[in-house]
Each structure stands twice: as C-alpha cells, then as structure tokens.
Amino acid sequence: MGILVTVDCPSFFLPSSRYEDAFAALQELAEESPEEFDDPEAVADASDLLAALDAESWKAETDAAGITKLSYVADKAPYDSDVDWPAALLGALAPFVTTGEMTVSLDGTPTFHFRLHDGNVETLSPRRGR
Q: Quick check: 101 and 85 in contact, CB under 8 A?
C-alpha cells in the first residue's frame, strides 16, 4: 500500500493555444527524465497534451479557452521520481501556464505548495518525506 498523493490546482490556466508547445515539453521531459513518470512511454505515445496528462493520472478540467484546473490523485508518486516530484513536470508546463497554484497533500495532510509564474516553479513551503 502506498501513500495517497493528492495534487489540487484550483488556480490554474493553460491556454489551448499553448497545448502543442506544452505537449512537446512534456514529451521531452518524459524522454530526458523518465523516472518522473509512471509510464513515460504512454506520454511519448499520447496523441495530445490532455491524453499525456491523463496517462499519468493527471485530470484536466477544460473549457473552450484551455485547461482551467489540474489535479492528481494516486496511491503514490512515480516510483523512481525525484524527492521534489511533481516539480519537474510542473517546470515543463510552467512556460505555458498563465496562472498556477497548487497544493500537494500526502495522506490528506497538505505538505507543500507550488506557484507557477513567469515560466518558473516556486516551492512555497518545504518538502517533507514521502
């Protein structure tokens, strides 16, 4: 049994006009850092950004303008991922995100908070063990 990992991004916007570039960045990360993904091949083989996110248990809520919310719920982060997961994935998406704030919770306890701005990812509270 793993630790329930929840990522909630209630303040998030990635314009649909940037999907193709964000998808390419996500595929590049899957190739360069496969340990950050449960199934990097599924990301590489995905047909588009939304399919790539879905392949990794990220759920995107969308409207005509783009992704308006992003969330992740799984019994663990990817097995070989870095201790600051999901910072690498968020870093790949950050240049294309207009607004992005998210909280990562472990077993229901908020553990850290990220903000995406100016194409970067800022960790707002320290990372604790997984």
A: no
For 29, the 3-state DSSP assignment is helix
Question: 76 in helix, strand or coil?
Answer: coil
d(CA 98, CA 112): 21
The per-residue pLDDT for 128 is: 45
The Cβ-side half-sphere exposure at 122, using a 13 Å CA radius, reads 9
Ramachandran quadrant class, 57 (left: phi over 0; alpha: psi -120 to 50; beta: rest):
left
Q: Name which residue leads in pLDDT, 12 or 109.
A: 12
At 129, which amino acid appears?
Answer: G
In angstroms, the CA 72 to CA 99 distance is: 17
Contact (CB, 8 A) for 106 and 130: yes
